[in-house]
């Protein structure tokens, strides 16, 4: 089973993904976490230290290269796993970032999304940008403006595939997010194991 997590920075994707896999493994299940970062956090920290803002197209080119490479490697690894695979971020995230920055979607990423194995669910962690911003400030490892988070939220919501995402309200504690995520995975598992009527 392949579950993909999306959401704006500060929505709790990485925390939820790790907790879900840890819980599954503790229950004796075969589960793997695969992360698909784009290097945004490192670039954000570096830009802040240098006092600069990366040109949009340069940032997108670097991020897309890293994200695309990681996603392709993750799918190759996932194809060899018999069990639960949770992907923290995917190409949807890069498309949302492009829209938020006012850049065109392009053809490659949408084509790859339609060509790669379809996840059993793309779960979108929906969180208010103000709360996400508080979380980012509290962790102190990167920097995002509230306006950028609002733009990214709106970009996700404008995506053609967004209505097909499973919405998960992430304006709550990490424990509650994981509990909700587990229920989503359980429903998908039951559905996949149900006999097909002939």
UniProtKB/TrEMBL annotation:
A GO cellular component annotation in the UniProt record: cytoplasm
Keywords from the named record: ATP-binding, Nucleotide-binding
One GO MF term: dTMP kinase activity
Protein name as it appears in the record: Thymidylate kinase
The UniProt record lists the keyword ATP-binding: yes
Family listed: Belongs to the thymidylate kinase family.
Claim: Oxidoreductase is one of the keywords in the record: no
Thymidylate kinase-like domain segment(s): 7-178
PANTHER family cross-referenced by the UniProt entry: THYMIDYLATE KINASE, UMP-CMP KINASE 2, MITOCHONDRIAL
Pfam families: Thymidylate_kin
GO terms of biological process kind: dTDP biosynthetic process; dTTP biosynthetic process; dUDP biosynthetic process
């Amino acid at each position: 089973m392949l579950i993909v997590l999306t959401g704006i920075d500060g929505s709790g994707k990485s925390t939820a993904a790790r907790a879900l896999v840890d819980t599954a493994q503790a229950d004796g299940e075969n589960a793997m976490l695969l992360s698909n970062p784009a290097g945004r956090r490192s670039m954000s920290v570096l830009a802040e230290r240098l006092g600069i803002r990366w040109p949009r197209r340069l940032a997108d080119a670097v991020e897309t290269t890293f994200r695309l490479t990681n996603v392709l490697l993750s799918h190759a690894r996932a194809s060899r796993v018999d069990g639960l695979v949770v992907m923290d971020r995917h190409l949807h995230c890069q498309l949302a970032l492009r829209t938020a920055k006012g850049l065109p979607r392009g053809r490659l990423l949408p084509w790859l999304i339609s060509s790669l194995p379809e996840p059993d669910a793309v779960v979108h962690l929906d969180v208010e940008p103000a709360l996400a911003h508080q979380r980012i400030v509290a962790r102190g490892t990167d920097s995002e403006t509230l306006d950028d988070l609002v733009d990214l939220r709106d970009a996700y919501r404008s995506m053609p595939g967004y209505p097909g995402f499973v919405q998960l309200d992430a304006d709550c504690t990490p424990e509650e997010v994981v509990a909700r995520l587990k229920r989503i995975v359980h429903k998908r598992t039951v559905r996949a194991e149900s006999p097909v009527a002939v």
